[in-house]
Amino acid sequence: MLMRTDPFRELDRLTQQLMGPGTWSRPSAMPMDAYREGEEYVVAFDLPGVSADAIDIDVERNMLTVKAERRPVAKADDVQMELSERPLGVFSRQLVLADTLDTEHIKADYDAGVLTLRIPIAERAKPRKISIGVGSGRKEISG
Question: CA torsion sign, 73 to 12 to 63 to 23?
Fold first, then answer.
């Protein structure tokens, strides 16, 4: 038998049981990290136990949508569940991407239950030097 002492984890588990698993019309949120690394914006989503073919990534204009579904593992008839904390169902996250990101060249990688999206910074958003032209002489404005 497993013992726990964290009351907040128990509250989270009870809330998940009451609300039920996420559905396509009411998905659960998935945890993520977002940061800039050099010339790319990186977003990492935790999706442990989700197969790569159950992940759907869409970009429409500047709205990025990631949906995934964790299905229950088939169990034999004589299995009696003692504890079930791993959430099942549909998970989704939507992000509004800045216009400074190049949504045409997003790269996705899925490894060890983590979906990592790398979004390059658009060329027009990168810092650049502006040359200064020198005029041929001074002009005065009279008025």
Answer: positive
Most confident residue range from 27-41, 75-89, 126-140: 27-41
**Residues 32-49 pLDDT 10s:** 999 999 999 999 999 988
Which segments within the chain are labelled E, that is strand?
32-37, 40-46, 55-60, 63-70, 89-96, 107-111, 114-120
Q: Would the pTM count as exceeding 0.85?
A: no
3-state DSSP percent of the chain in helix, strand and coil, to 5 = 15, 35, 50
Contact 69, 49 (CB under 8 A): no
Sign (positive or negative) of CA dihedral 36, 41, 43, 44: negative
DSSP symbol at 125:
G
For the chain, give the number of residues.
143
What's the rounded Cα separation, in Å, for the pair 92 and 27? 6
d(CA 64, CA 96): 6
Closest CA to 67 of 86, 95, 42, 99: 95
